[in-house]
């Protein structure tokens, strides 16, 4: 595990912190300010708990059962019961990095001092993360309103030493055994604490933050593959001129055009419109790449603004306010996060679509301006990359289905008390699949475009230095170049890993300088 430490305070958690803890095993520490804020808020909750008047979440039932006042002797049982009953998830296990993000973001909110949780509970949450203990969380159970209830409940169950969890060695064991093995004492929940551990948008937010990190890499990678395809198709880079994009000043469009122009600098392949047949301008999938990639980039920027606002939020119900009030609210509703999760699935699908169109153009002898059919070595004897495009098309088709918004749906729950929900968790889950698919789609275009560029080079045309760097790095990564048909899946898998890990961007930046 990475020994980098993330300090959790009363404010200031960043997207980089989330990725560091969720993916890279960064350690977590509570700041002194967070401990003080936790203690101060707990005094307020304890004072309210001692009063005869009912306070939601402190001395009442929950949801549609909030009208019942709970006596002192039943309140510890109430908190245990809400965790046990709400840990009702079903289906496959959720990925380790998602659960770690979920736990970390709940800890972030708890440490804000607005939830009324005791400092020792927050410390135990940090101890679980640092020990590499990951609760077993299931795919289904969150409607994205009243928080990601079932997923967070499975995490809280582990805090209590109940249920199952995965140890740092990847083995699933009873949570009590894992806690004991790491010297962690299970928590005994007091008033409000069970509810406070369940009531947040932490799962959908964690998946949003990680998707943004992945998509940033994929959009830069797609700018590179678009440039390679343009080059292989003997297209013109004149459409990338900054003055053309300045008169339609969408920020992302200008960034993508600049990335492509820098990749193509020094190319001997671009601008050959009249060499084989009159061609006034390139096809839309080539010519409009900056407009499509750029619009997606602008969507990412908006989603990052929403994620930043949510990272600065304390999502709980009720919340403890600095003036001592404990107030019910609706901040747990996941609509702001759900909408951008769905928006990202839409733009990711369209990016995958335009990548596939360029791949198809590279493989079609009637549109590729002199390249062999399917980039095959001996077309007819060899099929070349024909079925690689089938695979890419299947992925694009699934991405279009995944682009159907989850947040446009709502289904009432809790005896109509919770009669409108966000479905943000569902939006986040399908976005993760879409991001995985997009990496594969970009990888197929890269594989086809680099093969096509090499075939042009064999004809005596000199590719751009950045293109040569991309080809060399991909070949070194195990994705082979032109030649007779061979078992293709390993090459495509190597290209996928190469793109997914950011190695395509890293390969060209020594030539182009940093790409946005």
From TrEMBL:
<keyword id="KW-0369">Histidine metabolism</keyword>
<keyword id="KW-0963">Cytoplasm</keyword>
<dbReference type="GO" id="GO:0019557">
    <property type="term" value="P:L-histidine catabolic process to glutamate and formate"/>
</dbReference>
<comment type="pathway">
    <text>Amino-acid degradation; L-histidine degradation into L-glutamate; N-formimidoyl-L-glutamate from L-histidine: step 1/3.</text>
</comment>
<dbReference type="GO" id="GO:0005737">
    <property type="term" value="C:cytoplasm"/>
</dbReference>
<feature type="cross-link" description="5-imidazolinone (Ala-Gly)">
    <location>
        <begin position="145"/>
        <end position="147"/>
    </location>
</feature>
<dbReference type="InterPro" id="IPR024083">
    <property type="entry name" value="Fumarase/histidase_N"/>
</dbReference>
<feature type="modified residue" description="2,3-didehydroalanine (Ser)">
    <location>
        <position position="146"/>
    </location>
</feature>
<dbReference type="InterPro" id="IPR001106">
    <property type="entry name" value="Aromatic_Lyase"/>
</dbReference>
<dbReference type="InterPro" id="IPR022313">
    <property type="entry name" value="Phe/His_NH3-lyase_AS"/>
</dbReference>
<dbReference type="InterPro" id="IPR005921">
    <property type="entry name" value="HutH"/>
</dbReference>
<dbReference type="GO" id="GO:0051289">
    <property type="term" value="P:protein homotetramerization"/>
</dbReference>
<dbReference type="GO" id="GO:0004397">
    <property type="term" value="F:histidine ammonia-lyase activity"/>
</dbReference>
<dbReference type="GO" id="GO:0009800">
    <property type="term" value="P:cinnamic acid biosynthetic process"/>
</dbReference>
<keyword id="KW-0456">Lyase</keyword>
<dbReference type="GO" id="GO:0045548">
    <property type="term" value="F:phenylalanine ammonia-lyase activity"/>
</dbReference>
<dbReference type="InterPro" id="IPR008948">
    <property type="entry name" value="L-Aspartase-like"/>
</dbReference>
<dbReference type="GO" id="GO:0019556">
    <property type="term" value="P:L-histidine catabolic process to glutamate and formamide"/>
</dbReference>
<comment type="similarity">
    <text>Belongs to the PAL/histidase family.</text>
</comment>
<protein>
    <recommendedName>
        <fullName>Histidine ammonia-lyase</fullName>
        <ecNumber>4.3.1.3</ecNumber>
    </recommendedName>
</protein>
<dbReference type="Pfam" id="PF00221">
    <property type="entry name" value="Lyase_aromatic"/>
</dbReference>
